[in-house]
Predict the 3D structure of the following.
Amino acid sequence: MEIGNYLPLLLLPVMLGWVIWNKMRLNAGKEEHKDKSLQSFSERMGLQIVQGDPKLNLLYFQQPMGDFQRTIELVGRPYGRGVRFVISDGQRTSQLVVARRVTSSFGCRLSLEAPNTPTFEVFLRNPTNSALVPTRDHDALPLHEVRTGNPTLDMLFQVRSDNPNIGPALVPALNLLSTHQYVHLAGGSGQIWMNVERVVLGYVAAAPAEYLLALETAACGLEGRPAPAQMPALVPQTA
Amino acid sequence: MSTEPLPCLSCGAPMRVLEAAHLHATPELVCDFCSRREPLPAEAAERHRYVRLRLEQLARARAQLEAPLTTYRTLKTSVLPGIGFMCVVAGIQTFTAVSHAAGRIELSTLLPVAVMVGAITGWLGMMFTFRKLVAPFLQARPALSAGMPATCRSCGGDLPQVRAAQVSCPYCRADNLLGTAASAQVGSMLQADAQNAFNASRAKLDPSAFHKPARSFYTWGAAGAVLALVAIQGVLFAIGPMPSAGPGLPQPPSGAKGPQKVNFEQRSLAH
């Protein structure tokens, strides 16, 4: 008996089982990380879904087959000022005469309204991974590095602005971001925002409330108002 | 989180704090008896919010530290079906090699057997490393006294009293292993817990421990595969040339050196 002749018959159920098993694993992963679904994500930030599938899991942010264009939009006023989270994702194929050009596009931004915000940008000095380098919006502007007055934060972050006095106002927000591996904060044109890269979408989805709080704290700091989650004196201060 | 129960203004029953929907939401106090609801006072709400923020930060820091365990979990679930598949392939390969063996078996034909053995030894090594190095860090802290709940290894919050091997912390979502030892050896575990806390504070806790189970899979797997190859080679050497078990492959003519060369030109001419 030549067992090799029966090999395709043996391999067929194995391959089918493999595909089904992988699908089951993906579903189990989505169930385990259901806190990163768009529905849960919006609830954790206190936003409402305007566009997008509530079941979409931001950790398993898969692209549909072929050309597509999708926009996910969440809006709300969790701290009393307008907040917007947008993901724009797409793929377009141009049929040329001798070639085919596939253009993929992705943009994601969490922004909040903050009138009279000076132009600034903050990012990590030494990200642990090249994938954690954010897209900078103000590179073309003549901004200078400014100091926050906190040596630890100055070592961690690079703050660039046209206003040399902005550093200390951002300290409470930077304190909140000091343990994060992905950091981007930018301000100007009546907004404070952070860009989110595709590869860090899952990371941001794990801590959306913290990032939103950091943006709100930055806005409060720049306006000279108390931050929304100040540390109360849990231990009585002694003189 | 609240230790002092707040009496309801309507019926006097203790009120409980409802979990806030999101970080910046002000939690509500609710009475389970008369259903009275009222917002938490501003100062308490701010403190509550701050503690929630700290728990979020703690959960994220723990997730970052324990991220390598994702590889371990993936290997743990995927290697066993892989071993099953390799068993089928190795069985077929071995059967074919033995049935076609004309005097001797090529070592390369038994490579799937070595890979299968390597996968098994790698899996065993990974499980051993996990249990020895990582599982102790995932144990819940034992209860301070009998009847009290065990506490979370990460945030120290009370864990639900369940009959299960693992429980998730309701405050920081950390997975805690619940062993029988947690109730049987409270004293020694408390002492070990204190020692662990001391070691962690002295930075003796090795964060690379969470990488080691997955690495052990490859180390032990490679070692197992190599040992299997050596063992097979040894067995083959010991039993000597095998008798032909069938028609087998065409034998080279006597006196020929090296592999037989087929003269395609002559064959085509013959046709």
User: Anything to note?
Assistant: The radius of gyration of chain A is 23 Å. Chain A has a mean pLDDT of 86.
